[in-house]
């Protein structure tokens, strides 16, 4: 595949950048440490503009999108529909605010109803991860997560259900064709991607990222087997023609398939690494997470921030569950703790 329009060297460079005919990308800064920006994609639709993943609800986000649209000859009032690939605030909340201020419609995947419906500021930031961490053999970490409060910038974000839910196979009309909704669970259980077959592009959200592997089950109501779902949905992406990859974070890539193969290979290597630890004597997901390196900097578990420690342990548990389903390991449950042994 090839990208018709040259992209800036720095993918976060402000402005509305053409990607393929009829599609522009507006990078939007984020109010937290992590990805430097989120890519909002702009398309023309039959009743106005269609925006995909228009960022975290802040005045800065609105100003950035407004400036980008003006560069293209539009105004915020021209936005008719917003589609969020998933419910995370850096993809969803600005669109949710515009429902009131601009009268735009907001849609996201049907599977996101679980986490959106269970959200509440009066609860822990990750209520279901507490029991999950206990099952992973990390009770001290579970207590820390249970006591973790929402940051002020998180408390002020507008949030609630969308105007409608999208199901795999549905199509959203845009100029020059349609966006086909594709189920892509893993990062969240209702994550969707959008295929624009007439333009040979895939809007991948956080499902397929060009530089990092997305976290798994990072939501208020995670599914039981997020890694299995992620691997299955990645494999399914190889069964359709290749496209240009338009991710939510990071630069545009000229091949979705190439990046999918890299992600599948990464997780196969990670599964083997986890399995080797079990062969050395077995243990809990927490035991394994403490024994293996994390991030490209090969950090120890306790060198990570609390949220990342939580994700490292629960993702190790997800890898162990895939190994169990494959018959490579077995599990024994003792006092609610899952301990794995060679299969």
From TrEMBL:
InterPro entries cross-referenced by the UniProt entry: Metallo-B-lactamas, RibonucZ/Hydroxyglut_hydro, Sec-metab_biosynth-thioest, WH-like_DNA-bd_sf
Start and end residues of each Metallo-beta-lactamase domain: 37-249
SMART domains associated with the record: Lactamase_B
Protein name: Glyoxylase, beta-lactamase superfamily II
């Amino acid at each position: 595949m090839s990208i018709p329009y040259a992209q800036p060297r720095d993918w976060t460079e402000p402005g509305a950048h053409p990607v393929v005919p009829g599609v522009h990308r507006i990078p939007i800064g984020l109010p937290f440490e992590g990805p430097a920006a989120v890519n909002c994609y702009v398309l023309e639709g039959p009743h106005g503009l269609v925006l995909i993943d228009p960022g975290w609800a802040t005045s800065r986000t609105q100003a950035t999108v407004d400036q980008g649209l003006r560069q293209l000859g539009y105004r915020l009032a021209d936005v008719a529909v917003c589609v969020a690939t998933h419910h995370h605030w850096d993809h969803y909340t600005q669109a949710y605010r515009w429902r009131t201020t601009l009268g735009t419609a907001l849609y996201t995947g049907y599977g996101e109803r679980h986490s959106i419906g269970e959200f509440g500021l009066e609860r822990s930031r990750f209520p279901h991860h507490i029991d999950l961490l206990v099952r992973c053999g990390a009770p001290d970490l579970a207590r820390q997560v249970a006591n973790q409060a929402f940051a002020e910038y998180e408390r002020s974000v507008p949030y609630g259900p969308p105007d409608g839910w999208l199901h795999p196979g549905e199509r959203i009309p845009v100029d020059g064709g349609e966006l086909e909704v594709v189920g892509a669970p893993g990062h969240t259980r209702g994550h969707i991607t959008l295929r624009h077959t007439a333009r040979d592009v895939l809007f991948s959200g956080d499902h397929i990222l060009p530089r990092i592997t997305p976290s798994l089950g990072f939501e208020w109501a995670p599914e039981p087997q997020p890694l299995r779902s992620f691997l299955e949905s990645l494999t399914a992406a190889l069964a359709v023609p290749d496209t240009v990859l338009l991710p939510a974070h990071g630069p545009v890539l000229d091949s979705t398939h190439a990046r999918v193969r890299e992600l599948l290979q990464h997780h196969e290597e990670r599964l083997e690494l986890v399995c080797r630890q079990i062969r050395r004597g077995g243990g809990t997901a927490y035991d394994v997470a403490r024994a293996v390196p994390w991030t490209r900097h090969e950090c120890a578990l306790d060198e990570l921030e609390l949220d990342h420690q939580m994700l490292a342990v629960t993702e190790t548990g997800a890898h162990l569950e895939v190994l169990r389903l494959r018959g490579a390991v077995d599990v024994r449950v003792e006092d609610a703790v899952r301990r794995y042994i060679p299969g």
